[in-house]
Amino acid sequence: MSPVPADRTVNPVRALQAFGQSVWLDYIRRDLLSTGELARLVRDDGLRGLTSNPAIFEKAFSSGEDYASTLLEAARASRNPYRIYEALAFGDIRDAADALRAVYEATGGADGFVSLEVAPDLAHDTVGTLAEARRLWREAGRDNLMVKVPGTPAGVPAIKELIAEGINVNVTLLFARSAYEKVAEAHMSGLEHRAASGKDIGRVASVASFFVSRIDSAVDAELERRMGTASAAGKQALSALLGKTAIANAKLAYETYRRVTQAERWQKLAALGAKPQRLLWASTSTKNPKYRDVLYVEELIGPHTVNTMPPATLDAFRDHGVPRPSLQEALDEARAVLAELETHGIRLDDVTARLLDEGVALFSEAFARLLSAVEARVRSIAA
User: Fold this and answer.
1) In the beta sheet, which residues pair with residue 124?
2) pLDDT tens-digit profile of 254-263?
3) Is 235 strand, coil or helix?
4) Which of the following is catalytic: 148, 160, 182, 251?
5) Distance in Å from the first CA to the final CA of the chain
6) Among residues of the chain, what percentage have pLDDT more than 90?
7) CA 108 to CA 313: how far, in whole Å?
8) At 52, is the secondary structure helix, strand, or coil?
């Protein structure tokens, strides 16, 4: 659907709240807090949370003077680059959580969260993930923290246990709807276990982070490869699918969310005060310059969702985004897109399985670069 002219007297970012969507920022660094920029985003844009990952911390720690004194102080306490990283990361996470505390209270614990990720090398280790998530939760000491746990087969049982223990979880690296269904089951099972033990479930929060643009990047590459040897009619059919898969997949994932939350099982938990595990749209910057730069915001707007945007995407949507209740539009078309992919021999399950493996590997590589950057930064400051 083509965008229509927007009322430029209304901030499009803030307007997303009218459709039930919360905006989080996929970015963190010290000057976001020290300059008052985070407070401005909360005030003007209605920003309701922050997410982080190793790549974001690497960029933050590698440049500027914001971390110079803290780096040296942490290096005096330990020469281990991981411990130095944690000293810096925990400082930013706690400060950001404190800055968002008012949002957390005003929304009754629905928003106002900051996310911190377990070490990526634990993605296939349930026991290790549990131990690390518990440690991060304990050491951060903020009840508006979300611990990021990958939605891998090993991550799912950890998610169930963490929810049962009352630890907020941001389930990351979700690409497949089948994986999301397992995560939704783990979330409900964890809440049921907690409720059965007589504990409060009303303050336990979780989001399921569905990655968007990476799906189009992968599927479009395969479509273009096949277009190279296709007939004229075949090229036209393949071309019509470009840039359509990620949004179709996300819309059908939202259908799953609605089915889960409308079922009797969830309604029993809701009656006890449980908060739904909202879908969070991640990887929402547009990778293909041919596509509208706010594509993955405009087309995925709906109630009980979160969109975490990198700064450039947030700025672009504020400038020319057109909010509308798009998430439940054209569902038959979404199903048709995925069915058409199958007729061309492209199985989305194969694509999403590969993306999960690549996502784990990319996060591990980013974490290794982060630790190298910390070491290099300490050496440069100390020289």
Assistant:
1) none
2) 999 999 999 9
3) helix
4) 148
5) 56
6) 82
7) 28
8) coil
